[in-house]
Design goal:
A hairpin with a 2-residue loop joins strand 18 and strand 19. A 6-stranded antiparallel beta barrel has the order 5-11-14-13-12-15. Strands 1, 2, 3, 22 and 23 form a 5-stranded mixed sheet that branches. Strands 4-16-21-20 form a 4-stranded antiparallel sheet, with no helix packed on it. The chain has 444 residues and is of the alpha+beta class. Helix 3 packs antiparallel against helix 4 and helix 4 runs parallel beside helix 5.
Length: 444
């Protein structure tokens, strides 16, 4: 026989004040068999708390490509949306003037080579066979002049004695003195020529010849440097892509002058993309490089991403910058898309996990009721991770215990339990609601 329905409004008020679970106004049916409740077996399971942050997808690598050669564009090989590989020629600049300049410099280098050869010959011959022959002639002339000078000197000294003794005339003496003076001058001149040719003159000639050779070599080096610059410009006229990716900007047209106001090409590598999000201090200590996260966009199902970098310093808004990297080989993620990144803050998989509504917090105690052979037994528990739906139980109950998950709010230690499954509980609740409604209509 039914004993009636008990509406515990006051108990609801108390549960609002003391319970850690969301209280609801419930009808609890007490029968001869006990208070109707639902139970669930306590089992170990996984539980985690998650935080979701949004960010915008951006390429991991993006390069603006410029030309170091100015002038007219000769050819454009790609356009926006085209895929390119590193090293592909994006566009070419006109090289007609560069080629002409290169040919002119090459001709000048040939002339410089001829100048070098001539200067080298001068260096090699400045003291060569002809020089040695000249030196030998000068030495012979000096020796002959010296001999003549010595003879003239002897004659002069002898005739001087004869003149003083009155043996020869003054005219003869003057003639002897003149011959002596001429012989002396000839000897000194020959000696000077010989000494200069073998001394200072030789050194001066060598210095001049070497200076001429150095000048010719320097001229060629300058021309060679100019040629290398022109040849580099010719090579650079074929502008290549520095990375593999997709063309996301193309601002050059064949036959037009290259504009300095815009970037000619932009290449974006979308094989990997990144998401920059700012996370709060609540979870920053649980995020580290290498962590796996879930990423969701409107364009694709949830996929896995990897934490690439974590900035340990807060920005001006008090949050911390975290970069997420995602594989994007299929190209589903486009730069500029918005994405949601889910971080796991806490995770547990070795403890019992139950419905969080089964846990009651009241008067300084946290507890659950378990079914002990049809009797409600109060168990003080220590809780852990709470994800809003389930809660981790660190101690207080054992795996296999039958935990009361419906009707527990109004139980007391030792109450007799009438355990029903969720289907029966829902049916009973519907019947109770119908009976209450019918009773109210009858009274009216």
């Amino acid at each position: 026989m039914k004993l009636g329905k008990v509406f515990l409004a006051s108990a609801v008020c108390l549960s609002i004040a003391f319970s850690g679970c969301a209280p609801k106004t419930e009808e609890v049916e007490e029968t001869e068999g006990g208070i109707s409740v639902s139970t669930v077996k306590a089992e170990k399971g996984d539980i985690e708390t998650e935080y979701v942050y949004s960010g915008k997808i951006a390429p991991v690598e993006e390069r603006d490509v410029y030309s170091t050669v100015q002038g007219k564009v000769a050819a454009v090989n790609f356009d926006i949306g085209d895929s390119v590989n590193a090293g592909d020629v994006l566009f070419k600049m006109d090289t007609e003037s560069l080629v002409l300049n290169r040919n002119q410099i090459a001709a000048s280098i040939s002339a410089a080579d001829a100048n070098i050869a001539s200067a080298q010959l001068s260096v090699d011959t400045v003291d060569g066979a002809s020089y040695q022959m000249n030196v030998e002639n000068l030495k012979l002339n000096m020796d002959l002049a010296e001999q003549s000078y010595e003879n003239a000197k002897t004659t002069y000294e002898n005739n001087k004695v004869l003149y003083e003794n009155g043996i020869i005339s003054k005219a003869d003496m003057d003639s002897t003195e003149l011959a002596y003076t001429q012989a002396k001058n000839n000897y000194e001149s020959a000696k000077t020529s010989y000494e200069m040719t073998t001394g200072e003159l030789l050194a001066e000639n060598k210095e001049k010849a070497q200076a001429a050779l150095n000048s010719a070599v320097a001229s060629k080096e300058s021309l060679t440097a100019q040629l290398q610059t022109v040849e580099k410009s010719i090579r650079d006229s074929s502008v290549t892509s520095p990375i593999s990716g997709v063309v996301t900007a193309c601002n050059v047209r064949e036959g037009e002058l290259l504009s300095s106001a815009s970037v000619p090409f932009t290449i974006t590598d979308t094989s990997k993309v990144k998401i920059d999000v700012d996370v709060s201090q609540r979870i920053i200590n649980s995020v580290k490089a290498g962590d796996k996260v879930s990423v969701r966009t409107e364009a694709a199902d949830i996929i896995e991403g990897t934490v690439k970098t974590v900035n340990p310093a807060a920005n001006t808004s008090g949050t911390y910058a975290v970069e997420i990297e995602i594989e994007n080989k299929d190209g589903l993620f486009k730069p500029g898309m918005f994405a949601e990144v889910t971080f796991v803050n806490e995770k547990g998989d070795t403890e019992i996990v139950i419905d969080r509504d089964a846990v009651i917090s009241k008067e300084g105690e946290t507890y659950v009721f378990v079914d002990d052979n049809g009797t409600a037994v109060k168990k003080i528990v220590e809780t852990g991770i709470d994800d809003g739906t389930s809660i981790q139980i660190l101690s207080g109950i054992n795996e296999g215990d039958m935990v009361v998950v419906k009707g527990q709010t109004y139980l007391s230690e030792g109450d007799i339990l009438n355990v029903i499954d969720d289907t029966a509980a829902a049916k009973t609740e519907t019947e109770n609601s119908q009976e209450t409604s019918a009773s109210s209509e009858k009274e009216e």
